[in-house]
Amino acid sequence: MRKNIKKQGKIIGWISAGLLAVLGLSLGLIFGLRVSGHDNVAFSAEKTKLWDMITATPADTAHAVFINGFVGTSIVEKYLMENVKGKFSVDIIRSYKSTGHAPDEEEKVAKYNQQFLKGDVTKYANVIDKAMELSHMKSYFWFNDKKEMIRALTGSGNFSNNALLNAPSYKEVLYDVTNYEGIGRDLFCGGINATQQTKTTRLSQIYQANCAGFDIDKKETYQSGQNAIKVKSQFNDIVNLHQQNPKLKGAKGLLILSGDGGTEVIKEYLDQTAADNINLDVFVGNSPVGFKPILEKQMIADEKYSNRLNIIREHPRGSIEDDQGLIKNTTAKTHTKLYAWYNAQNELLAFWSGSANFTENGVKNNQSFREILLEMPLKNLNWKDELICKVVGAFKTKPSQRIQEFCR
């Protein structure tokens, strides 16, 4: 295995944002890193410091809008009282489930507004509770007083203590997509639509300023184009990518690192790609959602699947029965959602990442912007060495021989 898989306590490099700008992209990888301004991006394999990224607020910020599947009341209070301090307005949308919501949340937000803002309602903080499985995105946006977007982050990290303050290395990842081909704008516009906030007073003004002409169901209205962002039913795209994209004609395998992994989805992928003999390695590192132990045991024993399949599950077992012993019951290893295609020469052919786990709910939903996957540009960063293989290295179980060779 690579040295960079084994030694995770090491700072592994610096990349100049100026170089990224020359390449036409300012995409900052933010897993356990700290960014100082926009000059340098530091990649760290130490314990994550994603909180630094959330609190590194642009000086001209007038509004912040967070769209998150899960939002913790305690981190809302911390962010407002310690970082915002009445300097700009904040709208936080809880858009999937109520996990992390405390009964006194409204009281705490009201206390903040009274302490810092008195009667200045234009800068009030607001938590919008739409915990109706509308969007599982984890996206963060900052705007200036002209309502222009000045910063955008997205990835796997929810606005919670577990994701942003207490997560071990490689459990979460965020990406700075501020200048990545209009993706920040499309994520914001799609997220506001998906969470039914286009007519909320303050948000509607920001929406109108940024989303003129945007139609959530028409990709031709997206600034990011039709292929850079996958907004629904991503499973079909994942199955067909090696056939539809000429650059992937030589694909040998797909490596998936996911918080959750659905056994039935794994089986369906193998069935639909059998003629192309695509290998599949799945690392599941957060929870047993979608896990079917009997079916999975049958697949592992069936040569029809076993020659092409390897599944590693390292996460808390929870209440699920695992008589087959397929889960290594341990602390969660990763909540990332990474999809990496590679060829026989172990070259990375395509890399997708975002909010969608490899489960029925994650990649087979047909609701736009409930889940997102981004097609990451390969020419700008060495994703294989600097992220993908390091997440592989967070797992204790030895990977398959093909993944060892991929990460060698």
Give a short synopsis of this structure.
The chain has 15 helices and 18 strands. It is an alpha/beta fold and 408 residues long. The protein has two domains: 212 residues, Endonuclease, Chain A (2-Layer Sandwich); 178 residues, Endonuclease, Chain A (2-Layer Sandwich).
Counting helices, strands and paired strands, the structural category is: alpha/beta
The helix tally amounts to 15
What's the β-strand tally? 18
User: End-to-end distance, in Å?
Assistant: 5 Å
Can you tell me the CATH class of the largest domain? Alpha Beta
Radius of gyration, Cα only, in angstroms? 21 Å
Q: Average pLDDT, to the nearest integer?
A: 87
CATH superfamily of the largest domain: Endonuclease Chain A
CATH topology of the largest domain: Endonuclease, Chain A
Overall tally of domains: 2
Tell me the strand order in the biggest sheet.
11-18-17-16-12-13-14-15
